[in-house]
Amino acid sequence: MASTLVSDLLSFLRLSPTPFHATSNIADRLANHGFTRLRERDHWSLTRPGKYFVTRNDSSIIAFQLGTEDTSECGLRLIGAHTDSPCLKPKPYPNLNQKRYAQWGVEVYGGVLLNPWFDRDLSLAGKVSFSMKGEGIRHLLVDFKRPIAVIPSLAIHLDREANSNRSINAQTDLPPISARSEKDLADLLKTEISRQLTNLGVTLASEPQVLAWDLCFYDTQPPGLVGLDEEFITSARLDNLLSCFLATEALISATSGPDQWIVFNDHEEVGSTSLSGADGTFLSDVLHRVMPDESARLRALAQSMLISTDNAHGVHPNYAQKHDANHGPLLNEGPVIKINANQRYATSADSHAVFAQLCTEHAIPFQKFVTRSDMGCGSTIGPITAAKLGISTIDVGLPTFAMHSIRETAGAEDAQHLVRALTEFLSLASAPVSLPIA
More exposed terminus of the chain, fewer Cβ within 10 Å: N or C? Predict the structure, then answer.
């Protein structure tokens, strides 16, 4: 039987098909636990103790609990993650009517594992900007929820090499099919906007005019537990909504102590350089407003630590040779410290030691990952944030199968392990830094 934590995680994943929905759901959960919403355009009047959160672009969120201690003396505890996942996004002019089938022109967002997108029941969700007569620009989160499209595979009879030598052309092979007749697909959005506004009790004086959108196709198969003993979580977007959810739970559960922060950025999967990405100004802007005195802020950051939480590659039993023989993380064996000599991960000896000691003291299992020396290594928001703030950082994640697939797999027990580690980290009373070399 699933724990309450895992059940809540599955519900969060199901209700968060896009970064916008994930951010909205996290904001609602924080508000329900006493956090006050701030807006960047407003003047802030903060009190200690106090609990606050702020969003940017509706797809990134920062939340923080201000303690009663002098931050310049004890530093901050921060957990970072990202809200976006690889997917297919409709183009601005999506209509592709071929052989009288209504199809969507799509762009590939991030490093998508494309093969698993075929033969899935796809829906569409995201943010739509629109106007109505006599009103300004409005924004709405939409979610069709029901399957509205499919990308059928080409039958094996027409592609005898499909199982041995298949390549996918993102322009020609991926357009999803939505109907047997020619349709203006933007009309579907108008209808959906009208339906959702009506459900919200909004009286429509005119038909909405769709101006722009940021939408994602997603698989309608709900998240679930798999295995004889239900040991595995299977879902879309485990990378990295799994980390976002667990970090949020840790913040809510953490005991009083130093200032405690969670930072979830959008656009990690495409390099983080954006208004709401980790390579933008969101976190530094908020830190400046919370701690306007530069000297006190720099002193605090020098005694602070960030855990960058992003999924790790679990060793796949069918492809064990893809891992270094000594560094193959196993599912349900605890969170993974991610290390890379070329700084693709931000883990240092200092931050590594702090996390290892924390896990050891609280009997939390943990593992270590280094990629094979003859293979490339991905990266996270960790090195970016560490470089921008000058803050001690460690990259940690839960081992996962099929990362960047439309359906990924992680360990149910690992969720419990990581939330415990993150909660204990946020509650560290003393500055998590090592003594200088004698």
Answer: C
Residues in contact with 260: Cβ distance below 8 Å, sequence separation at least 6, in sequence order: 64, 65, 67, 76, 77, 78, 251, 254, 426, 427
Q: What are phi and psi of 318, to 5 degrees?
A: -85, -15
Would the pLDDT of 184 be above 70? yes
Residue 130, classed as helix, strand or coil, is strand
- In this predicted structure, which of 34-48, 106-120, 155-169, 175-189 has the lowest mean pLDDT? 175-189
Q: Which domains, and CATH codes, for the chain? A: 4-85+236-426 (3.40.630.10), 87-219 (2.30.250.10)
- Residues with Cβ within 8 Å of 203's Cβ and at least 6 positions away in sequence, in order, are none
CB atoms under 10 Å from CB of 243, counted, come to 29
Q: What is the pLDDT of residues 130-141, one digit of tens each?
A: 888 777 888 999
Nearest alpha-carbon partner for 235 in 9, 2, 393: 9
Backbone angles phi, psi at 348, to 5 degrees: -115, 170
Distance of CA 21 to the CA centre of its chain: 11
DSSP E strands, 119-248: 122-131, 137-143, 177-179, 209-219, 224-226, 232-235
Q: Is 263 helix (H, G, I), strand (E, B) or coil?
A: strand
Q: Which helix (H) or strand (E) holds 349?
A: helix 349-361
Rounded to whole angstroms, the Cα distance separating 389 from 285 reads 11
Burial (CB count within 10 angstroms: exposed 0-12, middle 13-18, buried 19+), residue 169? exposed
Structural tokens at position 90? 């409709």
Distance CA 347, CA 394 (A): 4
